[in-house]
Specification:
mainly alpha; MetI-like fold; 8 helices
Length: 224
């Protein structure tokens, strides 16, 4: 590695890491929170067999899973202004990432809900619990324990996917690397540095995931 490239990488690392911490991470966390809310609502509608709403949920899942994320980003950020709807880049990215990942996570949560024995619903009714109390205290905790590994993987995948927000002008970590590269023309070094930071973030999340899985396993009465 020549001295010029080394100096560029040393100078750019704190800038890229700063954008990762202040933009990429918040974008991931907010989008994932939205996706989790959407997924739980959609999954509960299907689990409860609310027939008037099920076709809407299935249509939402079908459309989102059947179209590319990049196309969805362009439709919301570049397409909606043509009909008078203007959304800033960061909120647009949050909406798209949230609704996109929510469709995939809804199937995960639905499967986890259906893995809980229906007999536990009947047992809850027998001790005088309402439907909402049974869902809150009996079914959902067990379902989330089952779904946790898959949801954690969705979070890690979303973190990496936020790099696509650069295409709609969100100044996140990857776009900042592109801006720097436009001045110094060191693509291999700079994008490799970005990849290293993403790897660092994902490794930390993976460690947290493994720790949390062990904790959840112990609460469930088994040894990890």
């Amino acid at each position: 590695m020549n001295e010029r490239l080394w100096n560029i990488l040393v100078d750019s690392f704190p800038k890229l890491l700063g954008y990762g911490v202040t933009v990429t991470i918040p974008l991931t966390v907010i989008s994932f929170a939205l996706a989790l809310i959407i997924s739980v609502v959609v999954a509960l509608i299907q689990y409860a067999d609310i027939k008037p709403l099920i076709p809407i949920c299935r249509f939402y899942i079908w459309v989102v899973r059947g179209t590319p994320l990049l196309v969805q980003l362009y439709l919301i950020f570049y397409g909606l202004p043509s009909v008078g709807i203007l959304i800033d880049a960061f909120p647009a990215a949050v909406l798209v990432f949230g609704f996109n990942e929510g469709a995939y996570m809804a199937e995960t949560v639905r499967g986890a809900l259906e893995s809980v024995s229906r007999g536990q619903m009947e047992a809850g009714y027998c001790v005088g619990l309402s439907y909402m109390q049974i869902m809150r205290h009996v079914v959902l905790p067990q379902a989330f324990r089952t779904a946790f590994p898959a949801l954690s993987n969705s979070l890690i995948s979303m973190l990496k996917g936020t790099s696509m927000a650069a295409t709609i002008t969100v100044m996140e970590m990857f776009r900042q690397a592109t801006v720097i590269n436009g001045r110094v023309y060191e693509s291999l070094g700079l994008y490799g540095e970005v990849a290293l930071i993403y790897l660092m973030f994902c490794t930390i999340l993976t460690w947290v995931q493994h720790w949390a899985e062990k904790k959840l396993a112990s609460y469930g009465g088994t040894k990890a």
